[in-house]
Amino acid sequence: MAGADTMDISPGSGVEETKTSGESKRQTTTNANAAMEEEESKPDPLKEALEAAEEQAQTHPAQAIAAFHDVLHTPNRDDEVAQRIKEEAIYRLAKLHADAHGFREVMALLKDSNDYFALVPKAKTAKIVRTIIDIVTKVPNSVDLQVELCKEVVAWCIAQKRTFLRQRIESRLAALLFLRGDYTDALSLINKLLRELKKFDDKQLLVETHLIEARIDHALRNLPKAKAALTAARTAGNSIYVVPAMQAELDQMSGVLHCEEGDYKTSHSYFLEAFEAFDSLSDPRARKCLEYMMLCSILQGTPQEVSAVTSKHGLKYAGEGMSALVAIAAAAKARSLELFDGAREEYGGVLAGDLLMKHHVHIVYEQLLESNLLKIIEPFSCVEISHVASLINLPEKTVEKKLSQMILDDKILGTLDQGQGQLLVYEGSGLDKTYTHGLEVIGNLGMVVDSLFRRAQKMLHSGHVVGGVGGSGEGPVESA
To answer: How many of the other CB atoms lie within 10 Å of CB of 384?
Structure first.
C-alpha cells in the first residue's frame, strides 16, 4: 500500500494533460493552414507569365506567341497546376494561329506539344486535340484548310498509335469532306471507319458516323441507303444516352428524308422536335429547322401558316433564308408565278445553297404552274396553246410540255392536237363501275367455292361425307 501513497491520483491531473495535448494539436493544424495559405498567396510565376502573354495578345500577337511558347516549354513544372496552365497556353496559341490563318503553325503546335502530351492521360490529349480543331472550325471559309489539318492530325495519330483519337478525327474529316462536296471520298472513308467501329463497339461514335453516312447518301440521292443509315444510327443510340443535340440532329435528318418522300406532315413534326431541342440549347441550327418547317407548310398547301411562324420566331431567327421562304409563301398564297420568279431571282443564292430547299422549291414552282394552267383552261373545251402561253406569260414550248405531262398524269382529261396547236379538253364523266362490281362478285364467289371445297376435303379425310342433296341428309355415310 506504500506504493499507492506515491501515485498522483488527483482528478484534475488527467484533464490538464488532455487539454494540453488538444491545444498542441490545434496549434499544429493552425500552423499548417497558415503555411498553406501563405503558399497559395505566393504568386505563381507560370500563371503570371500566362496572364502577361494574354495581355500582349491584344496588341502584339507575335510577341504573345513567343510568350505562350515559353509557358508551354517551362521546365521542371509537371504538377497539376502547371498542366492546366500549359493546356490553356496551347488553346491560346491555337486561337492566335487560327485567327492569322496559320494552319501549318497549328499542326506544328501539336507536334511541338508531344512532350506535354506524354505527361497527361490519353483522354485529356484527345480532348485538347478536338478542342484545337473546334477552334479552327470557328474561322469562316476555312473548310479546305480544316480538311488538310484533319488529314495531318490523322497521320500524327497513326504515328503516335492513338487509335481512338484517330477514329474521332476521321469522323470529323468525313463530315468536312461532305461539307466540301467530296461525297465519294467521304463515303469511302465512312465505310472504312464503320468496319473498325463495329469491332470496337463504340456506340457513341457509331451514332455520329451513321448520321454522317445518311447525310452523304441523301446528297447522292440514294434515299434507301440514307434511311438504312439513319435506322442504324437510331438502333446504336437506343443502348446509350444520346445527348439532346445529337437527338435533335437525328430528328432533323428524319424530317429531311420524310420530306423527300413527300410525307410533309410527318416531316413538319420531326422538324418541330429538332427546332425545340436546338432552341433550348441556343444552337444556331434552330434557324435551319425553322426554315424547313416553313417549307413543309408551303408544300402541304397551307402557306398561310408561315405568317404564324414568322410572328412567333421571326425576330429571333431573322435572316435571308426566312425572308426567302416568306416571299415564296406569299407567291404560293396568291398563286402568282411572277411573284415566285421574283422571289427566286432575289434569293436564288440562299435557296440553291441548301440541298432540300433547292429540290423542293422547284416542286413548289411545279405546283403553282399546274394550278395556274388548270385555272386558265377550266372554261374552255378547245383552246390554242399559244393563247394559254400568252395568258400565263411563258414560252409556248414550256406550256406544251407541261400540258402533255399533266395529261399523262391524269391531271387533265384531254388531248393535244399538235397539228392545229390546240388543247382539246373533255368533260369529266363518272367512271362506270359495272365491270368493277362484276369482278368483285366473281372474286367473292370463287372464295366461297374454295371454302366449300376445303370443307368437303376435310370431311372426306375424316371418313365421313355429307348426305346427298336429294336424301334426308341424316346420319354419316361411309366414304367409298
So the answer is: 15
Looking at beta carbons, which pairs linking 257-262 to residues 24 or more positions away fall under 8 Å? 257/214, 257/218, 257/223, 257/226, 257/227, 257/230, 259/292, 259/295, 259/296, 259/299, 259/356, 259/360, 260/218, 260/223, 260/356, 260/359, 261/223
Q: How many CB atoms within 10 Å of residue 141?
A: 7
Q: What residues have CB less than 8 Å from 277, skipping those under 6 apart?
A: 244, 245, 247, 248, 251
Could you give the CA distance from residue 187 to residue 206 in angstroms, rounded to a whole number? 15
pLDDT tens for 386-438 read 888 888 888 888 888 888 888 888 888 888 888 888 888 887 665 667 888 88
Give how far Cα 451 sits from Cα of 444, 448, 454, 464, 477, Å: 11, 5, 5, 18, 22
Spell out a b/e string for 282-292, using b for 16 or more CB atoms within 10 Å of the CB, else e: ebebbbbbbbb
Q: Is 0.85 surpassed by the pTM of this model?
A: no
Q: Angle, to 10 degrees, between the axis of helix 122-137 and the axis of helix 80-99? A: 20
Distance CA 247, CA 325 (A): 26
Cα dihedral 92→244→188→144 (10° resolution): -30
Name which of 318, 317, 264 is nearest 293 in CA terms. Answer: 264
